[in-house]
Amino acid sequence: MGETMVRIVVEADEIPAASTPVVRRRGRPAGNGVHAVSEDRVLDLAFRTFAERGYEGTTLRELAKALGVSHNLLNVRFGTKEDLWRRAVDARVAQIGPPVFEAFEAAGLDDEARLRELVHRFCRWAAGNGEFAALSYVEGRRRTWRIDYIVDAYLRPFKERLDQLLADVAAKRPVHPITTSAFMAMLVQGVAFYFASSPMLDRLGVGAEIEPGQVDARVGMFADFILAALLPEKR
Fold first, then answer.
1. Could you report the per-residue pLDDT of 104-115, keeping only the tens digit for each?
2. CA–CA separation, 60 vs 230, rounded Å?
3. Which CATH number fits domain 97-230: 1.10.3470, 2.60.300, 1.10.150, 1.10.357?
4. CA-CA distance, 19 to 42, in Å (whole number)?
Protein backbone atom coordinates (compact mmCIF):
# COMPACT_ATOMS: atom_id res chain seq x y z
CA MET A 1 0.00 0.00 0.00
CA GLY A 2 2.85 2.40 0.87
CA GLU A 3 4.44 2.33 -2.57
CA THR A 4 1.01 2.55 -4.20
CA MET A 5 0.32 5.76 -2.32
CA VAL A 6 3.35 7.38 -3.89
CA ARG A 7 2.66 6.09 -7.38
CA ILE A 8 -0.91 7.35 -7.33
CA VAL A 9 0.29 10.94 -7.36
CA VAL A 10 1.88 10.54 -10.79
CA GLU A 11 1.76 7.33 -12.81
CA ALA A 12 5.17 5.69 -12.52
CA ASP A 13 5.71 5.22 -16.25
CA GLU A 14 4.59 8.70 -17.25
CA ILE A 15 6.72 11.77 -17.76
CA PRO A 16 4.93 14.70 -16.06
CA ALA A 17 3.24 17.16 -18.38
CA ALA A 18 5.83 19.79 -17.58
CA SER A 19 8.54 17.47 -18.84
CA THR A 20 7.58 17.48 -22.53
CA PRO A 21 10.94 17.67 -24.33
CA VAL A 22 11.78 20.83 -26.17
CA VAL A 23 11.63 20.32 -29.94
CA ARG A 24 15.07 19.99 -31.46
CA ARG A 25 16.73 18.41 -34.47
CA ARG A 26 18.03 14.88 -34.38
CA GLY A 27 21.51 14.31 -33.13
CA ARG A 28 23.34 15.45 -30.04
CA PRO A 29 21.81 18.28 -27.99
CA ALA A 30 23.00 21.72 -28.92
CA GLY A 31 26.02 22.88 -26.96
CA ASN A 32 24.11 25.81 -25.49
CA GLY A 33 20.76 24.00 -25.31
CA VAL A 34 20.58 24.11 -21.54
CA HIS A 35 20.36 27.92 -21.63
CA ALA A 36 17.22 27.70 -23.76
CA VAL A 37 15.42 25.87 -20.92
CA SER A 38 14.27 28.05 -18.05
CA GLU A 39 15.50 27.34 -14.56
CA ASP A 40 11.91 27.14 -13.35
CA ARG A 41 11.15 24.38 -15.83
CA VAL A 42 14.22 22.37 -14.87
CA LEU A 43 13.49 22.66 -11.14
CA ASP A 44 9.82 21.87 -11.61
CA LEU A 45 10.56 18.73 -13.61
CA ALA A 46 13.25 17.70 -11.14
CA PHE A 47 10.89 18.07 -8.18
CA ARG A 48 8.13 16.10 -9.92
CA THR A 49 10.51 13.32 -10.82
CA PHE A 50 12.10 13.11 -7.37
CA ALA A 51 8.60 12.95 -5.84
CA GLU A 52 7.50 10.24 -8.26
CA ARG A 53 10.58 8.04 -8.53
CA GLY A 54 12.55 8.87 -5.41
CA TYR A 55 16.11 10.14 -5.25
CA GLU A 56 17.74 6.85 -6.24
CA GLY A 57 15.31 6.33 -9.11
CA THR A 58 16.07 9.72 -10.67
CA THR A 59 19.06 10.38 -12.90
CA LEU A 60 20.37 13.61 -14.39
CA ARG A 61 20.69 11.81 -17.69
CA GLU A 62 16.96 11.05 -17.80
CA LEU A 63 16.09 14.60 -16.79
CA ALA A 64 18.37 15.99 -19.48
CA LYS A 65 16.78 13.72 -22.08
CA ALA A 66 13.28 14.85 -21.07
CA LEU A 67 14.38 18.49 -21.35
CA GLY A 68 16.20 17.95 -24.64
CA VAL A 69 19.56 19.17 -23.35
CA SER A 70 22.99 17.72 -22.79
CA HIS A 71 23.51 15.75 -19.61
CA ASN A 72 26.91 17.38 -19.12
CA LEU A 73 25.54 20.87 -19.55
CA LEU A 74 22.72 20.19 -17.09
CA ASN A 75 25.36 19.07 -14.64
CA VAL A 76 27.43 22.20 -15.22
CA ARG A 77 24.47 24.54 -14.73
CA PHE A 78 22.83 22.83 -11.76
CA GLY A 79 25.63 20.84 -10.17
CA THR A 80 25.36 17.32 -8.84
CA LYS A 81 22.13 15.41 -8.35
CA GLU A 82 22.32 16.31 -4.67
CA ASP A 83 22.61 20.00 -5.56
CA LEU A 84 19.67 19.73 -7.95
CA TRP A 85 17.52 17.97 -5.32
CA ARG A 86 18.14 20.74 -2.79
CA ARG A 87 17.44 23.48 -5.32
CA ALA A 88 14.29 21.77 -6.54
CA VAL A 89 12.94 21.40 -2.99
CA ASP A 90 13.84 24.99 -2.09
CA ALA A 91 12.18 26.31 -5.24
CA ARG A 92 8.98 24.37 -4.65
CA VAL A 93 8.71 25.45 -0.99
CA ALA A 94 9.37 29.07 -1.96
CA GLN A 95 6.54 28.77 -4.47
CA ILE A 96 3.92 27.04 -2.33
CA GLY A 97 4.87 27.71 1.28
CA PRO A 98 4.22 31.42 2.00
CA PRO A 99 0.39 31.36 2.19
CA VAL A 100 0.52 28.74 4.96
CA PHE A 101 3.39 30.26 6.93
CA GLU A 102 1.82 33.71 6.69
CA ALA A 103 -1.21 32.46 8.64
CA PHE A 104 0.91 32.60 11.80
CA GLU A 105 1.10 36.37 11.35
CA ALA A 106 -2.46 36.98 10.17
CA ALA A 107 -3.33 40.47 11.33
CA GLY A 108 -6.37 41.29 13.43
CA LEU A 109 -6.96 37.72 14.64
CA ASP A 110 -6.77 36.22 18.11
CA ASP A 111 -4.94 32.93 18.65
CA GLU A 112 -7.93 30.69 18.05
CA ALA A 113 -8.95 32.52 14.91
CA ARG A 114 -5.35 32.34 13.71
CA LEU A 115 -5.34 28.58 14.27
CA ARG A 116 -8.58 28.22 12.34
CA GLU A 117 -7.16 30.27 9.50
CA LEU A 118 -4.01 28.15 9.50
CA VAL A 119 -5.96 24.89 9.23
CA HIS A 120 -8.06 26.19 6.35
CA ARG A 121 -4.96 27.42 4.53
CA PHE A 122 -3.15 24.16 5.18
CA CYS A 123 -6.05 22.15 3.75
CA ARG A 124 -6.10 24.44 0.71
CA TRP A 125 -2.35 23.92 0.35
CA ALA A 126 -2.72 20.15 0.67
CA ALA A 127 -5.39 20.08 -2.03
CA GLY A 128 -2.95 21.38 -4.62
CA ASN A 129 0.37 19.91 -3.53
CA GLY A 130 0.14 16.14 -3.64
CA GLU A 131 3.65 16.00 -5.08
CA PHE A 132 5.12 17.50 -1.92
CA ALA A 133 3.19 14.96 0.14
CA ALA A 134 4.61 12.22 -2.10
CA LEU A 135 8.16 13.50 -1.62
CA SER A 136 7.75 13.69 2.16
CA TYR A 137 6.32 10.17 2.19
CA VAL A 138 9.19 8.77 0.13
CA GLU A 139 11.88 10.52 2.17
CA GLY A 140 10.21 10.35 5.58
CA ARG A 141 10.52 6.57 5.82
CA ARG A 142 14.33 6.49 5.74
CA ARG A 143 17.16 8.13 7.61
CA THR A 144 19.03 10.10 4.94
CA TRP A 145 20.60 13.51 4.48
CA ARG A 146 17.48 14.43 2.52
CA ILE A 147 15.06 13.98 5.40
CA ASP A 148 17.53 15.86 7.60
CA TYR A 149 17.40 18.72 5.12
CA ILE A 150 13.60 18.78 4.87
CA VAL A 151 13.16 18.63 8.65
CA ASP A 152 15.83 21.19 9.55
CA ALA A 153 14.98 23.67 6.82
CA TYR A 154 11.19 23.48 6.79
CA LEU A 155 9.35 21.02 9.01
CA ARG A 156 10.95 21.82 12.37
CA PRO A 157 10.51 25.62 12.03
CA PHE A 158 6.85 25.06 11.10
CA LYS A 159 6.34 22.59 13.95
CA GLU A 160 7.84 24.97 16.50
CA ARG A 161 5.48 27.74 15.47
CA LEU A 162 2.53 25.36 15.51
CA ASP A 163 3.56 24.11 18.97
CA GLN A 164 3.47 27.67 20.26
CA LEU A 165 0.17 28.53 18.60
CA LEU A 166 -1.54 25.41 19.97
CA ALA A 167 -0.14 26.15 23.43
CA ASP A 168 -1.45 29.72 23.25
CA VAL A 169 -4.90 28.48 22.23
CA ALA A 170 -4.89 25.77 24.92
CA ALA A 171 -4.14 28.39 27.58
CA LYS A 172 -7.47 30.08 26.80
CA ARG A 173 -9.86 27.25 25.89
CA PRO A 174 -10.09 23.42 25.81
CA VAL A 175 -8.10 21.69 23.06
CA HIS A 176 -8.26 17.96 22.42
CA PRO A 177 -4.75 16.57 22.88
CA ILE A 178 -2.78 15.71 19.75
CA THR A 179 0.90 16.07 19.04
CA THR A 180 1.79 18.58 16.38
CA SER A 181 3.71 15.92 14.45
CA ALA A 182 0.56 13.77 14.28
CA PHE A 183 -1.48 16.82 13.37
CA MET A 184 0.87 17.70 10.52
CA ALA A 185 0.86 14.11 9.23
CA MET A 186 -2.94 14.13 9.20
CA LEU A 187 -2.96 17.28 7.10
CA VAL A 188 -0.15 16.37 4.70
CA GLN A 189 -0.54 12.62 4.25
CA GLY A 190 -4.26 12.59 4.87
CA VAL A 191 -5.73 15.60 3.10
CA ALA A 192 -3.08 15.80 0.38
CA PHE A 193 -3.37 12.11 -0.43
CA TYR A 194 -7.12 12.38 -0.82
CA PHE A 195 -6.83 15.14 -3.42
CA ALA A 196 -3.93 13.44 -5.20
CA SER A 197 -5.63 10.05 -5.47
CA SER A 198 -8.04 10.71 -8.33
CA PRO A 199 -7.37 7.30 -9.97
CA MET A 200 -8.41 5.55 -6.77
CA LEU A 201 -11.47 7.77 -6.28
CA ASP A 202 -12.47 7.20 -9.91
CA ARG A 203 -12.20 3.44 -9.39
CA LEU A 204 -14.41 3.78 -6.31
CA GLY A 205 -16.94 5.68 -8.41
CA VAL A 206 -16.55 8.94 -6.49
CA GLY A 207 -14.07 10.82 -8.67
CA ALA A 208 -16.52 13.72 -8.94
CA GLU A 209 -15.72 14.55 -5.30
CA ILE A 210 -12.51 16.29 -6.31
CA GLU A 211 -13.48 17.78 -9.64
CA PRO A 212 -12.40 21.46 -9.87
CA GLY A 213 -15.83 22.76 -8.99
CA GLN A 214 -15.87 20.68 -5.80
CA VAL A 215 -12.43 21.50 -4.41
CA ASP A 216 -13.47 24.50 -2.32
CA ALA A 217 -16.28 22.54 -0.69
CA ARG A 218 -13.99 19.59 0.06
CA VAL A 219 -11.28 21.83 1.48
CA GLY A 220 -13.84 23.43 3.78
CA MET A 221 -15.17 19.98 4.74
CA PHE A 222 -11.74 18.78 5.81
CA ALA A 223 -10.86 21.98 7.65
CA ASP A 224 -14.15 22.14 9.54
CA PHE A 225 -13.99 18.46 10.47
CA ILE A 226 -10.41 18.73 11.75
CA LEU A 227 -11.17 21.88 13.72
CA ALA A 228 -14.31 20.35 15.25
CA ALA A 229 -12.20 17.42 16.45
CA LEU A 230 -9.41 19.66 17.71
CA LEU A 231 -11.50 22.36 19.38
CA PRO A 232 -14.47 21.04 21.38
CA GLU A 233 -17.41 23.36 21.85
CA LYS A 234 -17.02 25.73 24.77
CA ARG A 235 -19.33 25.12 27.69
1. 988 899 999 999
2. 44
3. 1.10.357
4. 8
